[in-house]
Amino acid sequence: MIKNIVFDMGKVLVDYEGHKVGTVFMEDEAERKEVCTSVFDSQEWLLLDMGLISEEDALKRMQSRLSTDHAKEMAELCLKHWHEYNMQPVKEMGELVRELKEQGYGIYLCSNASLRLLTYTSVIPGIEYFDGVLFSAEVKCMKPQKEMYGHLFERFHLKPEECFFIDDLLMNVEGARECGMEGYCFADRDIEGLKECLRKLN
């Protein structure tokens, strides 16, 4: 019997546009591409999600690849403010979270995300209904690594077979299944399809 619903964050609860902040601070298209690529499409970004590098060290490495002092300044602005512009809550998912909570489910979040977002959970729709939040940077591993799901179960005292996981990446859902937690791939962003699947759980 499923007692808990576990959500991913990006492209499930929250729409994410990796380079949007660049349009706020830079008009020159070439500079914007250079800066955003160095910041958001980088090894350092992955290391931040894994909690293996500080933002200060990540920024230094990102800036080292940039060609001008102005571009380096823009990289600092983009890294400092990305969460204010790149993330937008999906209102309909907030309503779904509320409905599931009212039905008696435990509600949890399991996301590959940096420590920055621990202080910015207000962007998550329905956050007031969540019973627990786990970000990858806290535990220095990421989905679909089995250790990530293990931390989820251990921290919140959950049984895998009583949990249902929703993620936009099939490899993350498959990783959950290998750990005993059934799931649903939300890649098509079909909320009605997801609701229909959830209605059939028990």
Automatic annotation (TrEMBL):
InterPro entries from the UniProt entry: HAD-like_sf (IPR036412), HAD-SF_hydro_IA (IPR006439), HAD_sf (IPR023214), PGP-like_dom2 (IPR023198)
Alphabetized SUPFAM superfamilies for the sequence: HAD-like
Pfam families the record matches: Hydrolase
CDD domains in the record: HAD_sEH-N_like (cd02603)
PANTHER family assigned: ALPHA-D-GLUCOSE 1-PHOSPHATE PHOSPHATASE (PTHR43611), FLAVIN MONONUCLEOTIDE HYDROLASE 1, CHLOROPLATIC (PTHR43611:SF3)
Protein name (Swiss-Prot/TrEMBL): Haloacid dehalogenase
Native species: Lacrimispora amygdalina
